[in-house]
Amino acid sequence: MSELQDAKAVVRAYQAALDRASAGDVASALAPHVSTDFLWRGMHPFYIQNGAESVADTFWSPLKTALTSLSRREDIFMAGRNQMDGFESVWVVSMGHMMGLHDAHWLGIPPTRRMTFLRYAEFCKVENGRVTEAAMFCDIPHLMMQAGVNPFPPQTAAHLVQPGPATHNGVMDAPQAPSEGEKTLAVINAMINDLGTWQSGLPLVEELARTWNEDMVWWGPAGIGATYTIQRYAEQHAGPFRAGFTNRTGTGHLCRLAEGEFGGFFGWPNFTAEATGGFMGLPATGKAGEFRVVDIYRRGGDKLSENWVFIDLLHWLSGQGVDVLARMRAGSPLP
């Protein structure tokens, strides 16, 4: 438990340095807190970067230039040992929104001069007092929508600035009882095992009810949206998603952990599947595509109650031959 608390302190220092830094000095602010071979994974169009300077120049400095007075509004903060390497490594997870004033273009997204929210989830691996790896997922299409640029046809669920946990206990600076994290990880693993390759043999609603509370909330990414209750989740996301793909591979993650009532994972990719059913208004391409996903969960009792989801849809769409950012800059919607 003390090792988890030490890792949290490392990430708190990393966050504080990053949050204080101006657009021009991000690299020097990050350098004392990350390893010299720092490996950073970001969403399309950033992908893999190495070292503080590359991460600063590629992602943070342009973001801080575009979203001025950038501040962090954190909803979940947790640490745990990574199941995917036999619980050897320690990772710290932060999730919430970056709030700022959208004063300049970022990735071609036009400024509004109004406050804006960028959903984020970051996984940080901590070794020897430094952050050695990070995965930074953020909901770029949601920022586009706030700027009045919606690249997607009408979707099945709701789009909104998403709140944190209903229980308001997701920021866990203090240590949590290990037994609670074990319960959370066990139900996450059971849900993953049920999901499998969409061949559990049960009707979808019955499958979901094994590991989800009836009043579950699925906080999905822009382009899909959020949905509430098992029945509506099955109708508004899980059913259409499964109908839109075939030949789904098994689930693979780089990190999976839990602390207290919260847990989560990310993959690079989590799985691949062939687009054969016309997902997100696109014609069926028959192409296999990668899904890079973050899932963060809250357990309520013995089952899962809330799920915040980040999917690198821009990366998936690029694999289907659609460059959303280029189309936005050209003023063209998706086909």
List the helices and strands and how they pair.
Elements: H1 2-20, H2 26-30, E1 34-42, E2 48-50, H3 52-66, E3 67-81, E4 90-102, E5 115-127, E6 130-138, H4 140-146, H5 178-195, H6 204-209, E7 212-219, E8 226-228, H7 230-243, E9 245-246, E10 255-259, E11 262-266, E12 271-275, E13 288-291, E14 293-300, E15 303-311, H8 313-319, H9 324-330
Parallel strand pairs: 1-6, 7-15
Antiparallel strand pairs: 1-2, 3-4, 4-5, 5-6, 7-8, 9-12, 10-11, 11-14, 12-13, 14-15
Keywords, separated by commas or semicolons:
29% helix, 2 domains, alpha+beta, 335 residues, 9 helices, Nuclear Transport Factor 2, Chain: A, single chain, 6-stranded mixed beta sheet
Quick overview:
This protein is of the alpha+beta class and 335 residues long. The protein has nine helices and 15 strands.
Description of the structure:
The chain has 335 residues and is α+β, with helices and mostly antiparallel strands. The protein has 2 domains: 2-146, Nuclear Transport Factor 2, Chain: A; 178-330, Roll (Nuclear Transport Factor 2, Chain: A). Helix content is 29%, strand content 33%. It has 9 helices and 15 strands. Strands 2-1-6-5-4-3 form a 6-stranded mixed β-sheet. A hairpin with a 5-residue loop joins strand 1 (34-42) and strand 2. It is globular and about 55 Å long.
